[in-house]
Amino acid sequence: MSDDNGLTGPATRRTLLAGAGAVGAAVVLTACGGDDEPAGSGSAAPTSGGPGVSPSADAGGDRGAADAIVGTADVPVGGGVIFASKGVVITQPSAGVFKGFSPICTHQKCPVSRIDGGTIICTCHNSKFSIEDGSVKGGPAKQPLPAKEIVVDGDQIRLA
Q1: Is residue 106 within 8 Å of 140, Cβ to Cβ?
Q2: Where is this region: Disordered (predicted)?
């Protein structure tokens, strides 16, 4: 016996619905990505802000500095780079001034996902934070991004 949509019997409908649910779950899980991938990047490269900058996970000068996160030249002035797997956002609000912040939004603990226009942005609910001091610039977040201690050693930046 066939109904209006061409499916026969309840077992076939259950199979169809279960398959659709599995596909939906796979799409959601794929969109979430892993800890080593910033949201929307599609690769293990860090997310960066600023025009024309696209550093890779291996970016930055001296390979002997094993604990270095990024080279200073790879952090755009007026922007920054998100290293979700390292637990830090590194910004350069003005030339030669580097800041470190937590990559986790204070609103509902989503990872921040991009830097644009002098702000660190969490696209979960559109909270925006200053690249200068982590203060809230907009959105539902009420608390600033916590600062992270970083050290600039020559042309390399590492966690303190």
Answers
A1: no
A2: 37-65
Q: Report if residue 143 sits inside a domain.
A: yes
List the chain residues with pLDDT less than 50.
Answer: 1-9, 12-64
Q: Strands across the sheet with 70-71, in order?
A: 70-71, 156-159, 150-153
Tokens 């500095």 correspond to 65
Q: In 10 A of CB 106, how many CB atoms?
A: 19
Query: Residue 121 falls within a domain, yes or no?
Result: yes
128's enclosing H/E stretch is strand 127-130
Dihedral (CA of 53, 55, 61, 67) sign? positive
Residue 85 maps to which CATH number?
Answer: 2.102.10.10
Phi-psi region of 15 (alpha: psi -120 to 50; beta: other; left: phi over 0): alpha
pTM over 0.85: no
Q: What is the rounded distance in angstroms from the CA atom of residue 125 to the CA atom of residue 43?
A: 23
Cα 120 → chain centroid = 10
